[in-house]
Specification:
Keywords (chain B): Activator, ATP-binding, DNA replication, DNA-binding, Magnesium, Metal-binding, NAD, Nucleotide-binding, Nucleus, Oxidoreductase, Transcription, Transcription regulation, Zinc, Zinc-finger
Subcellular location (chain B): Nucleus
CATH topology of the largest domain in chain B: SH3 type barrels
CATH architecture of the largest domain in chain B: Roll
Radius of gyration of chain B: 45 Å
Shape of chain B: extended
Largest sheet of chain B: 7 strands, mixed
Helix content of chain A: 55-70%
GO molecular function, one term (chain B): ATP binding
Structural class of chain B: alpha/beta
Number of domains of chain B: 7
Order of helices and strands of chain A: HHHEHEHHHEHEHEHHHHHHHHHEEHH
Strand content of chain B: 15-25%
Strand content of chain A: 5-15%
GO cellular component, one term (chain B): cytoplasm
Distance between the termini of chain A: 58 Å
Number of strands of chain A: 7
Oligomer: heterodimer
Number of strands of chain B: 40
CATH superfamily of the largest domain in chain B: Bromo adjacent homology (BAH) domain
Main location (chain B): nucleus
Distance between the termini of chain B: 121 Å
Helix content of chain B: 40-55%
Chain lengths: 419, 1276
């Protein structure tokens, strides 16, 4: 099935690389200033020195907080087999204290091959957690609690966090609590008494700098020399790639990419799509691949929505815009229809549709979220009478009309007049 | 008759060879297999020629079907032989602990192989390989119908293989029958079902096991195949499986085809063209012939039936002279005709059409079960149905015959197609017997196994038979010939270890031991001769204050006669008997026996073996390892490695005085450096005396801890002992970081007679051990408990401490409450305990008890433990920094609590006043203060002090219940918790409330527990419910007369009482105590007191940290954490670059910089950094936000306005103007990080935005981005 084709194979290798966070983020692991080594030091020293710690990993989404943590945990599990149990919780799933505690008990039971009872009460589970912490401490075992979406655990009375962090104040327990959150003020969300028990180690994950991006791209895209690929192909591929990387055009593309979002996750999505564009016949990546991947990564949903609108829908949008300019307090379907009619009367356009057709178009616009109801009140009322608002600005509308393939000239005129 | 005798002779010879044991040898098996291999490789031509003569097979077909697979099988057997031969470990239930079990394969004996004519070599040698591999002697009877092959076979076997053990007997039916008359250990038959019946009948005579490989009508189900490629391949495979395998004369050849009606015509066409292209115009060259005339005419008769004849669509030509039949395809012959009711065994291929292909399942199931089913289909559903709803020896999808060559798949039939399976390892298994071997030791026994019976034993059995197999070992694990012994201690192993210990073996390097408890205890061996045993009196101090009982020891000879020093394991059934007779055991706390005083909790040596006294010299005196004289007056020194003693003067060079630190003798040093330096031989006639310690460490003795002591009914003294074991006896063996004198305490108990106790030894915790000086030779160290069931280690330091504390509180009660002379009740307690222990150790793993429920009783935790003691715990030398980190841990309890003396005094006087009052009026104290000011810790410290006073007898005993409001599931739950704390029972909260009300208000009618009660409620504010009834109840109890309840509430807010209902605040708010935030001097003192004696911090750094924390919160936890983090940072720095940051002394000090970065990490919000590193567009976005804020003065703005500003910025500065959608995304991302506060993105242009941080922060952060956005500053 084309497996023998080196280009196909190379594509598979590259794609699987991009999809595995552990490969991508292993790039950051060698320097001592990286979060990887800091985190590893904190956790491994808690394991070997039998102390408790709590760490927060903060940073925007797509910067590899969880990925780095997973790499660290995986390595530590390898270094200290049988000595670390990892409990993973997610704020989106377990923000309720009761169910979080149950999940902890379940994972602990699973890890140590104990029988687990779903019926156990909150009390039982919290007692079980404490005794497990003690027993594990006596056996030199460390329990690592990973709380993803940490900010969501801070809702309510924060019982779970309090129990966990308070349990870590005793000498026999040996545990690390790792919170992962994209909210920078996650630690401020903690209640005072919980915050006081928290050890306040914070690691900040930032988007990579320009140079790092450049090197990361190299790290990901250069084919390994020790793979099953033919050597001459690898060499040719890599040479070609290095040439692309130094190309000014390519640099421009990366700059545009990073202009709006410079996180690793964004970059990976871009590279993935670029690789999908790779030409199998030639077997090499080209600048064009990257260029064509760019629009697919920077979608403009509203503009695309506009592009697909029917002429009638455009009329309605323009009418709404005109009403907006007139600063009428209330704008609903009926007032739009009035405006529509007045346009028709003034210019005698050929596009005049019956009212129910217009209502259909109106509802369609609502569905596409180009317009929306002003408030959530009055569900009982029929859609014609509820006040609506335009969700796109003049600019967008203007551009949309311009790029629309069959926009009547009259609409352009109307818009231009206003502009 | 002649042949009869001859056969008998041959069989006898073969049997003799087998009984000589020659065939069992691995070398023999291997040699024979190798010979067989060379036979196949060298004589391929002869074999193929014979096959050509008999069957007309083409050379290539012969190689493909017979020689090739055989070569492969022999190679496979040679490869796997060793593995197959070694036994497999089997799991035993825990109830049988300690025991091990395995399965060992042994040959069956003399085996008869009767093979068939269609594959004269393959069907005869394939089982032969298995039989040889399994170590059997073999007699082969090849088929008489393929005479050329048989004779070639006989010649070859004779020439290559060991004819004393492997014989070929040729002959017809008569010979076969005679062979069957003989006694065999297994008969392996390949052939028709008819003959199979005869074989099995004959075998029944001697109860010989048989394996029959018969045939059957193997169907091929052909589904609609749409792609031409699939069709082409399927046809090729069908044809080669029908006509290409000995012209269909094979048991696994396709017999007929089942096809759906709509596809049938296509199939016939396909078959026709495929036959032509595969076999050509002259098929004779490529297709084998029919074996003989009778078979030929059988096949002809099948075709002659009129209806069948009419159904021929291809072929049908027959050449009787050459016994050849053309490939023949028949379309829908009648199902009741001969061709569809008996096995065809020839090149005739009927095609049966069905309405739907799914009907094939019913069709197949209506026929006798075939050896194989083939199906050619891409339909997964059909595959699943076929494999689940039909029965056959094998099923193959989209191919045929290949299952024959796969060694990993067993080959054999089911039902009418035979039984027994072979090929690969399965052949080996067919010809061998898996003998079960179970090994037990005498060590542990379950007393309830034996009569007399009673109900109690039945109960124990019921729980004991719930077998739980340890999941540790996988059942197929192979035992290596020399597995290190894992579970039970055996003397042999220990001996060998002891012997090898003289040869170079890995021992811990001295430097690594530097920090071990070893060095602290410098052993000077100055032994005094202890007075030899003398017949003494036993004086007994019973547990109950009774006059001391004394008694003469039994006469010495008496002692010798009965003194078989065995480790007797007595279980309580014995005393159960005694109990029945109305006699009782008497328990003692202390017994003086044989001149030694033994108490519960003591550690003693116990004799191990009957002949343990072989070197029964005075064991108290250790001799010098060089001159073999006891210490006398000269000073001896102990090597820290081998533990041998040396006179200072005997050493070379002699030492003048005992050196500081560790000392290793030159023998050990030599060993380490790779040389072998032998210890001097003892002078002749003098055996080297070994001390008890040496014997223990070489497991000639045992050490136990006495748990309890009693006198049996018959007057003998017994004790319940808890075993200690040495590292070699654990599952992991001695680890390099084990200390020389280390022992493990087990969870294994036994009852032993006092007779077998030798004398005291001293097993200490590492702390005690390091302090123990000159305590003699019998000092050991024990840090871990070893679980003999789970083979895991657990620290005991912590447990013991807790236990001691508990005992301190509990023993008093026991003294007061228990009737002292009532030894019966005590005995019962003991029984309970014992059976509980037994039950626990036996059944708790077996019973599926949920670990996390059972009303707060946690089960199954004993299986948690380290498999090995981690090396870093022992071998790690703590640096000053690490020590500092350890003491700065919040969890570490400080020795003293500085700066809270005043408050502690106040608490103490409050509690004392409340307790010691004769009246003991209830009181209530409210403690408040910000977190981290030592509120709970102070109260707990006070309680500890008071407890020691209770122990000293200064104050009356009281009970203490500690509750944390945040750990309760609901506020009402507090009643249950209080009640549990007071009574030990768990009930629902309503019931608990009822009981508590009764207890505290009811004038104590029950009079049971009159002790005052101190209730500490942490995080009191969590108990506030809507109607505040919980708080009211709790605070109301102290006011009731005679309640004797003292409530101490702790919370953070100062004005909690004021926020509550007046009736509550009037009860709570009277006595308050405020814990103010620490000021910087206090914080500094706290940190310094913890760091006493550790030189790791710069003084200024500590001051800086404390000043900073005092300014912010005065939270001691914070201050400690900052220092710990700073130490961590310094440590990290040092580990990363070991050279740069050390000062002159080569030490790392925690300096200001570290503290500063720790403070930064803790207090500084990271938003500035995030803003700085964010994307260009986000920066522009934020700048626009700030701009908008200044322009309008309004904190809030909408997305539309902002987007306009951003476009403005961009267009006037030559940046790319972003689309609104991209901008919206940027805004939402910033909102996610909470740099902005924003509404959901669906609001689009109406979305409201607001900065979450002061605009100055943002401006400050943005000002730095000069290189990528230099124009940004002008808008700020």
């Amino acid at each position: 099935m084309g497996r023998d084709n080196p280009a196909e194979q190379a594509k598979i290798i590259l794609r699987s690389r991009i999809s595995s966070p552990s490969f991508v983020f292993s790039f950051f692991s060698n320097s001592p200033d990286s979060n990887y080594s800091k985190l590893k030091y904190i956790i491994s020293s808690s394991v070997t020195e039998a102390c408790n710690n709590s760490v927060l990993l903060l940073g925007p989404r797509g910067c590899g907080k969880v990925a780095v943590l997973e790499i660290v945990l995986e390595e530590l599990l390898k270094e200290h087999p049988d000595m670390i149990s990892v409990i993973r919780l997610n704020g989106l799933l377990h923000c309720d204290n009761n169910c979080a505690l149950k999940e902890i008990a379940r994972q602990l039971c699973l890890e140590h091959q104990l029988q687990f009872s779903k019926m156990a009460s909150y009390d039982d589970n919290s007692q079980f957690l404490l005794s497990m912490l003690r027993e594990c401490g006596l056996a030199h075992k460390t329990i690592v609690f990973v709380l993803d979406e940490f900010d969501l655990f801070t809702q309510g009375k924060q019982r779970l966090l309090y129990s966990l962090l308070d349990a870590m104040q005793s000498i026999t327990s040996q545990a690390v609590v790792v919170g992962v959150s994209c909210r920078l003020d996650a630690d401020q969300l903690l209640e005072k008494r919980v915050r006081s028990r928290f050890s306040h180690r914070k690691l900040l994950f930032l988007p990579p700098s320009r140079e790092d991006v450049q090197r990361l791209v190299e790290h990901i895209l250069l084919l390994p020399t020790d793979s099953s690929l033919p050597n001459d192909y690898t060499a040719a591929f890599n040479a070609k790639l290095l040439k692309i990387l130094t190309d000014e055009k390519f640099k421009g593309i990366i700059d545009t990419l990073c202009y709006s979002d410079s996180t690793v996750g964004h970059l990976l999505r871009f590279l993935f799509s670029a690789i999908c564009h790779m030409d199998i016949k030639s077997g090499f990546l080209s600048v064009d691949n990257f260029r064509s991947a760019l629009p697919s990564i920077q979608r403009q949903p509203k503009m695309e929505g506009l592009k697909d609108c029917s002429v009638l829908e455009l009329y309605i949008l323009v009418c709404m815009r005109r009403l907006e300019v007139k600063e009428l307090e209330l704008c609903n379907f009926n007032s739009i229809m009035k405006e529509y009619k007045s346009i028709h009367d003034a210019f005698q356009t050929s596009d005049y549709y019956a009212r129910n057709v217009c209502l259909r178009a109106f509802e369609h616009l609502l569905e596409r979220a180009l317009i929306s109801f002003e408030d959530n009140k009055g569900h009982g009322q029929s859609a014609e009478f509820r006040p609506v608002k335009l969700l796109i600005s003049w600019h967008e509308l203007h551009q949309g009309l311009k790029s629309h393939r069959s926009c009547p000239a009259i609409l352009h005129k109307l818009m231009d007049r206003e502009g | 008759m002649d042949s009869d005798r001859e056969i008998g002779e041959s069989v006898r010879e073969v049997r003799q060879t087998f009984s000589s044991g020659k065939t069992r040898e691995e070398s023999w098996r291997r040699a024979q297999l190798k010979k067989l291999l060379s036979l196949l490789l060298e004589r391929e031509d002869d074999i193929c020629k014979a096959l050509g003569q008999d069957l007309g097979k083409h050379h290539v077909e012969s190689y493909r079907d017979e020689v090739g697979p055989l070569i492969k099988s022999v190679n496979y057997a040679l490869q796997g032989l060793k593995k197959w031969m070694s036994g497999r470990k089997a799991d035993l239930p825990l109830a049988a602990f300690p025991a091990s079990a395995e399965l060992v394969s042994e040959p069956l004996g003399v085996v008869l192989i009767i093979s068939s004519w269609n594959f004269p070599f393959g069907l005869c040698l394939e089982p032969l390989i298995g039989a040889i591999a399994a170590g059997n002697a073999v007699v082969i009877k090849p088929s008489e119908l393929s005479p050329a092959s048989s004779s070639v076979l006989a010649d070859l076997v004779h020439a290559y293989l060991d004819t004393t053990a492997i014989k070929i007997i040729q002959g017809g039916v008569a010979v076969g029958e005679q062979l069957l008359q003989q006694k065999w250990d297994k008969i392996f038959f390949t052939g028709s079902a008819k003959v199979g019946r005869i074989v099995m009948t004959a075998a029944a005579n001697y109860l010989t096991p048989v394996a029959l490989e018969l045939g059957g009508k193997c169907p091929a189900v052909v589904d609609v195949l749409s792609s031409s490629w699939d069709q082409k391949i399927a046809m090729k495979r069908i044809l080669s499986a029908k006509f290409g395998t000995c012209a269909g004369q094979a048991c696994i050849a396709i017999d007929y085809i089942l096809v759906e009606k709509k596809f049938s015509t296509t199939l016939v066409e396909l078959l026709k063209t495929a036959i032509l292209s595969m076999f050509g115009e002259n098929p004779k060259a490529n297709i084998a012939r029919i074996i003989n005339k009778s078979h030929f005419s059988r096949l002809r008769n099948l075709l002659i039936e009129p209806m069948v004849r009419n159904s021929i669509v291809h072929g049908g030509w027959m050449d009787e002279d050459n016994l050849f039949i053309e490939p023949t395809v028949l379309f829908d012959p009648p199902v009741n005709s001969g061709i569809m009711s008996e096995e065809i065994f020839g090149p005739l291929l009927p095609i049966i059409t069905l309405e739907r292909i799914e009907d094939s399942i019913e069709f197949i199931n209506a026929m006798p079960r075939p050896l194989a089913i083939y199906a050619f289909t891409n339909n997964e559903g059909l595959k699943k149905k076929l494999s689940s709803r039909t029965s056959s020896g094998s099923i193959v999808f989209n191919d045929a015959i290949i299952q024959y060559v796969a060694d990993s798949l067993p080959f054999g039939g089911v039902g009418e197609s035979g039984f027994g399976r072979y090929h690969g390892k399965f052949s080996f298994e067919m010809f061998s017997h898996d003998k079960a071997i179970a090994r037990r030791s005498f060590l542990v026994d379950f007393w309830f196994r034996y009569p007399p019976w009673n109900h109690h034993k039945l109960q124990l059995f019921k729980s004991a038979y719930v077998f739980d197999y340890q999941p540790i070992s996988s059942p197929d694990r192979v035992i290596e010939p020399l597995t290190p012994q894992t579970s039970t201690p055996t003397t042999n192993l220990r001996r060998s270890l002891r012997l090898t210990s003289d040869s170079p073996q890995p021992t811990p390097a001295p430097s690594r031991l530097k920090n071990s408890p070893h060095s602290a205890r410098k052993t000077l061996k100055t032994y005094q001769n202890v007075a030899p045993y003398s017949p003494t009196t036993i004086s007994i101090t019973p547990a109950s204050p009774q006059p001391t009982e004394s008694r003469k020891k039994r006469k010495p000879q008496d002692n010798q006669a009965s003194g078989i020093e065995k480790r007797r394991v007595l279980r309580s059934d014995k005393c159960r008997n005694a109990n029945n007779k109305g006699k009782k055991r008497v328990y003692y706390k202390k017994v003086v026996y044989d001149g030694g005083e033994f108490a519960a909790g003591d550690d003693v040596y116990v004799k191990r073996r009957e002949d343990g006294s072989s070197d029964d010299e005075d064991p108290e005196v250790e001799e010098c390892r060089v001159c073999f004289k006891p210490a006398g007056k000269r000073i001896m020194i102990e090597c820290d490695d081998c533990l041998n003693g040396f006179h200072l003067t005997c050493l070379k060079p002699p030492l003048k005085e005992v050196p500081e630190g560790d000392w290793v003798c030159n023998y050990c040093e030599a060993r380490k450096s790779g040389k072998i330096l032998k210890f001097p031989e003892p002078p002749k006639g003098k055996k080297r005396a070994r001390t008890a310690r040496e014997k223990l460490l070489s497991s000639d003795l045992w050490a136990v801890r006495i748990e309890s002591l009693w006198k049996e009914v018959d007057g003998s003294y017994w004790c319940r002992a808890r075993w200690y074991i040495i590292p070699e006896e654990t599952a992991v063996g001695r680890q390099p970081h084990n200390l020389r004198r280390e022992l493990y305490r087990t969870n294994d108990f036994a009852d032993i007679e006092m007779e077998s106790i030798i004398r005291h030894c001293y097993v200490m915790s590492p702390k005690e051990f390091s302090k123990a000086v000159n305590d003699g030779d019998d000092v050991f160290l024990c840090e871990y408990e070893y679980d003999i069931q789970w083979h895991s280690f657990k620290r005991i330091a912590g447990i013991d401490k807790d236990e001691d504390d508990d005992e301190g509180a509990d023993t008093d009660d026991d003294w007061n409450s228990c009737d002292e002379s009532d030894s019966a009740s005590e005995q019962d307690i003991e029984y309970d305990d014992e059976s509980k222990i037994n039950l626990l150790s036996l059944t708790s793993p077996a019973h599926p008890v949920a670990a996390n429920s059972r009303k707060g009783r946690i089960f199954g935790l004993q299986r948690i433990g380290a498999r090995k003691i981690p090396e870093h715990v022992r071998c790690h030398k703590q640096t000053d920094l690490e020590k500092a980190k350890a003491t700065l841990l919040l969890a570490t309890l400080p020795k003293s609590l500085p700066c809270r003396d005043k408050e502690m005094d106040e608490i103490t006087t409050f509690i004392k006043g409340a307790i010691c009052d004769e009246q003991c009026l209830g009181r209530c104290l409210y403690i408040h203060g910000v977190p981290g000011t030592g509120k709970t810790m102070s109260v707990l410290a006070v309680m500890r002090n008071l407890k020691s006073e209770v122990d000293a007898g200064n104050i009356k005993p009281y009970c203490f219940v500690e509750i944390n409001g945040l750990k309760l599931a609901s506020p009402e739950n507090i009643y249950s918790v209080i009640y549990e704390g007071l009574s030990g029972h768990r009930v629902g909260w309503k019931k608990a409330l009822h009981f508590l009300n009764e207890r505290f208000s009811d004038e104590n009618k029950r009079g049971k527990d009159t002790r005052p009660c101190v209730l500490l409620i942490d995080e009191l504010d969590l108990l506030v419910t809507r109607n505040q009834s919980v708080l009211y109840n709790i605070l109301d109890w102290p006011n009731k007369p005679n309640s004797k309840l003292i409530v101490i509430g702790i919370a953070n807010t100062m004005d909690l009482p004021e926020k509550l209902l007046p009736r509550i605040s009037s009860r709570m708010g009277i006595q308050r105590l405020c814990f103010g935030p620490y000021n910087y001097q206090q914080l500094q003192e706290i940190i310094l007191s913890r760091l006493k004696g550790i030189d790791a911090f710069e003084k200024l750094a500590i001051e800086f940290a404390s000043r900073k924390v005092a300014a912010v919160s005065g939270d001691a936890r914070r201050a400690l954490e900052i220092c710990r983090r700073a130490a961590e940072l310094a440590d990290y720095r040092a580990k990363r670059s070991p050279l740069s940051s050390t000062d002159a002394a080569g030490k790392i000090m925690v300096g200001m910089a570290d503290v500063e970065s720790a403070i930064k990490e803790m207090f500084q919000a990271p938003h500035i950094q995030v803003i700085r590193s964010s994307s260009k567009l986000s920066k522009i976005f934020l700048a626009a936000m700030v701009h908008e804020l200044y322009k309008t003065g309004m904190a809030e703005t909408t997305f539309e306005k902002l987007a306009m500003t951003v476009s403005c910025f961009c267009s006037s500065n030559g940046e790319m103007i972003p689309g609104y959608d991209a901008l919206l995304k940027v805004g939402c991302k910033l909102g996610e990080c909470r740099i902005l506060l924003c509404e959901a993105g669906t609001r689009h242009k109406l979305q409201k935005l607001q900065l979450n941080y002061p605009s100055d922060d943002v401006t400050f952060a943005l000002k730095d981005s000069k290189e990528d956005l230099p124009w940004l500053t002008k808008y700020l």
